[in-house]
Amino acid sequence: MAATHQFHAIAFVENLSLKELAIAYPDAHRSAHELWYSTPSGGTVFVYPFGAITLSGVPPAEREAHLTRLRAAKSGLHEANASEDLVVREEPVGQPDMLDGELVLDRLSSEGARVVAMTVAQSAAMEYYERIVDEMFSGTDHLVERLEVSGRAPLGTRPLHRFIGTAIGTRNEVLSILHLLDKPDAVWEDATANRIYEQLRAEFDLADRYLALEHKLRSVQEALELVLDISRDYRLVALELAVVVLIIVEIVVGLTRH
């Protein structure tokens, strides 16, 4: 009977410091990109600095215990309602391949398991950022539609400043956190792990999803800057009109006094 391995990844709103978490996980191994430890049931838990955890071979009934342990180690941790699952099946095959949504390979090595765990976690984290960016994109569309209907931008620039700041901050976070799309270290040392990575990267469309995120964030930023410029121009015109009115009033008052 073919051996199967279940990988379940969960994304969080907050990023994670592996150095700080290592204090609460004295039994764990840590590298620059991940922290991992074995469970009593024979599974493995992987924790990533970009705010995600992958449970490999951990029965569903035991998952909550590991999540509780992570919440205790990192106070104020919030799940992002973004997750990803993948089944890996060991069968006599020439090279790793995706069949019916499952990764099929001859043998899942420790390096291969680390690549699978990280790629699944990347996809879960990407889902969280996609949702944030989609909300910002919708908000920008609303502002642009208002400009199209009314022909003018809102006078209040402070909300626009906050919105633009949020867009830029989110874009910078996506660009910095998702640099993890670079190949994991294990890929350079294991040809099979490299094949696994390429298969999963294509399966989860990581490269295309990342480019789509970057394009949307750039569009949001450009649209908001345009609306802000129009709003400033409108305020300058209103200010100039107010000055002209004040001058006229002053002239009229001066003439009536004479």
What does this structure look like?
With 258 residues, this protein is of the alpha+beta class. It folds into two domains: 3-108, TATA-Binding Protein (2-Layer Sandwich); 124-257. It is 59% helix and 17% strand. An eight-stranded mixed beta sheet has the order 2-3-4-5-1-6-8-7, sandwiched between helices. Helix 3 runs parallel beside helix 6 and helix 4 (158-177) packs antiparallel against helix 7. The chain starts with a strand and ends with a helix. The mean pLDDT is 82.
Q: In the residues, how many domains can be counted?
A: 2
The gyration radius over C-alpha positions equals 26 Å
- Tell me the number of strands: 8
Strand order, main sheet: write it out.
2-3-4-5-1-6-8-7
Summarize the structure.
Helix content is 59%, strand content 17%.
What topology emerges from the helices and strands here?
Blueprint: E1 3-12, H1 18-24, E2 29-30, E3 35-38, E4 44-48, E5 52-56, H2 60-73, E6 79-90, E7 97-99, E8 102-105, H3 110-150, H4 158-177, H5 185-189, H6 191-203, H7 206-257
Parallel strand pairs: 6-8
Antiparallel strand pairs: 1-5, 1-6, 2-3, 3-4, 4-5, 7-8
How would you describe this structure in keywords?
258 residues, alpha+beta, TATA-Binding Protein, 2 domains, eight-stranded mixed beta sheet, 8 strands, 17% strand
